[in-house]
Amino acid sequence: MALKRIATAHWEGDIQTGxxxxxxxxxxxxxxxxxxxxxRFGDEKGTNxxxxxxAAHAGCFSMALSxxxxxxxxxxxxxxxxAEATMDPGMSPGPTVTGMHLTVRASVPDxxxxxxxxxxxxxxxxxxxxxxxxxxxxxxARSEAVKAKAEADRKRAELAAEANQKREEND
Length: 171
Description:
The chain is α+β, with helices and mostly antiparallel strands. Helices cover 50% and strands 22% of the residues. Strands 1-2-3 form a three-stranded antiparallel sheet. β1 (8-12) and β2 form a beta hairpin. The chain is elongated.
């Protein structure tokens, strides 16, 4: 059975002066967290989508690393992961996350540096599979949005043609 996790975002106004709020109603971790152009591209207090992606990536990797270590017979006492999202702030087609750099520090009894590196790489591969699934879902959503836009454009063209035909009939 697939698990579903929910987050919401509300936005009001234009991109430069507007503002919004993001929430995680399922967990209740935060509600109506401020975000805006200035929290995303400036230094105003609040969050932004890239920060939340980085937090999710760090958490997901830490758990994946723990799982892969466990399958190899190791139990970590501590895993600290820092994720740094790199973003191209361009507006065409829009801001794009261009990279995610992870820095991991862990305490794992009785493991060699070579074993840890191999296991960390295996965890990275597991995360990549998850990212590819999310990317495929995103591409499917974009494809559906393009189809919906094409259908809306087709209907507008039909309505415009009908309106022109009626005008010609009335003239």
